[in-house]
Amino acid sequence: QGLVLVTAGVRFITHDGAVWVYRREHPDLDRFGPVTVGNNVFIGTGAILLPGVTVGDDCVIAAGAVVSRDIPGGTVAAGIPARPICTIDEYWERNAAQFSHIHRRPNAEKRRLLLERFRLPPG
User: Fold this and answer.
1) Catalytic one among 15, 26, 101, 103?
2) Would you call 89 helix, strand, or coil by DSSP?
3) 26 catalytic, yes or no?
């Protein structure tokens, strides 16, 4: 599906203010570029996407990442600047043991299951 999840504090920057340093010689200079995001993409908290970048389909952009160049589809990208760190299939393999299939369950049931999983006392 064509869904994208943009979390808190994500910034899409389509204007490059760094051209300011050229304004003496080029007073009318500006630089703009679209930010293009594919389908089935998760963009983590506080990520910044800079002018002219494209994020392909089926990607995860890590929290705090600064995307300054294109990210190919099927990739998990992290860092400053963001760079591919693994495929989404590798991410699944590395983290499957920590995943919980509880997303659509009622909150009380989620709480109970998480308390059990982490062996914490109820309440």
Assistant:
1) 26
2) helix
3) yes
- Which distant-in-sequence residues (6+ apart) come within 8 Å of 90 by Cβ? 76
Residue pLDDT, tens place only, 21-55: 999 999 999 999 999 999 999 999 999 999 999 99
Taking a C-beta distance cutoff of 8 angstroms, is the pair 54, 70 a contact? yes
Q: How far is CA 11 from the centre of its chain?
A: 10
HSE-up of 7 (CA within 13 Å, CB side)? Answer: 13
Can you tell me the distance from the alpha carbon of 73 to that of 40, in angstroms, rounded to the nearest whole number? 10
Write out pLDDT tens, residues 65-121. Answer: 999 999 999 999 999 999 999 999 999 999 999 999 999 999 999 999 999 999 999
Distance CA 2, CA 26 (A): 41
Q: C-alpha 111: how far from its chain's center?
A: 26
Q: Are 87 and 71 in contact (CB under 8 A)?
A: no
